[in-house]
Amino acid sequence: MTSSPRTHARARSFDAAAALYSANRPGYPGELFDAVEELAGRGLRGARVADVGAGTGIATGLLRARGADVLAVEPGDGMAAEFRRANPGIPLVRGDGDRLPLATAGFDLLTYAQAWHWTDPARSFPEARRVLRPGGALALWWNDMDSAVPWIAEQDERIRTLFGADGTGHRPLPTGASFTMREIRWSRRIPLEVHLANHASHSAFLMLGPAGTQEFVEAERARLSALFPDGTVEERYVVTLGVAVMHDTP
């Protein structure tokens, strides 16, 4: 979805690990969708929504559960196959944020759940404006583990040391629109093995390969087993949400 070959390869690395991604990635709290409705100025029930870069449908399914008339856009073969398996009742079209296969002025809301950074904003933002109705909203969000928690901060530092600058993606917001930002904190309690598999499903580890990922996972298992002797980890998250309402047409 971007012009960088390296970034394109990382984006498409998920196709080979779609089942791992679907089984272990976190969902999103209800408070996130409350905030989307508040900042967009309308409810999700009955809204025409396109979830772009939908992956395996984690956000898409939650949008449908809130009553949205939602359609998914996904470029990857493996992710699309997993999406269809998990969400047989939700329509899916193949495409990406830089070239949306969607009708002009056809949607009330576009969502990018941890997907905007895979696009080229110079292309994807004009496309978002094109397909949104006047007064429609663009919602971008990222779900990051909360580095205010000491053990998470220590783990983040180990990941940064392993990957350097490649460990985190650049997340530029589009210019030409006014975004209202909101942070939502939440947590989930999961088995240690799910926590480790969640990390293994991230693009940096998928690009690292099985041997390097296994080495990291085994070291983290040893550290965290001492910290969480009952085998249950509480992952704490911060969702960073930005919503812009488009009051005019392109």
Protein model, in words:
This protein is globular. The chain is an alpha/beta fold. A seven-stranded mixed sheet has the order 3-2-1-4-5-7-6. The longest helix is centred in the last third of the chain and has 18 residues, at 210-227. It has ten helices and seven strands. Helix 4 (58-65) links the parallel strand 1 and strand 2. The relative contact order is 0.17. The chain has a domain at 5-145 and 170-187 and 236-245: 3-Layer(aba) Sandwich (Rossmann fold).
Q: Examine the coordinates and then state which fold CATH places here, giving the name of the CATH topology of the domain at 5-145 and 170-187 and 236-245.
A: Rossmann fold
CATH class of the domain at 5-145 and 170-187 and 236-245: Alpha Beta
Q: How many beta-strand elements?
A: 7
- Average predicted local confidence, pLDDT: 89
* Silhouette: globular
| CATH architecture assignment name of the domain at 5-145 and 170-187 and 236-245 | 3-Layer(aba) Sandwich
The major pleated sheet works out as: 7 strands, mixed
CATH superfamily of the domain at 5-145 and 170-187 and 236-245: Vaccinia Virus protein VP39
Strand content: 15-25%
Order of helices and strands: HHHEHEHEEHEHEHHHE
Total helices: the number is 10
Strand order of the largest sheet: 3-2-1-4-5-7-6
Work out the oligomeric state of the chains in this entry: single chain
Which structural category fits the helices and strands? alpha/beta
Gyration radius, rounded: 18 Å
Low-confidence stretches: none
Distance between the termini: 22 Å
Helix coverage percent of residues? 40-55%
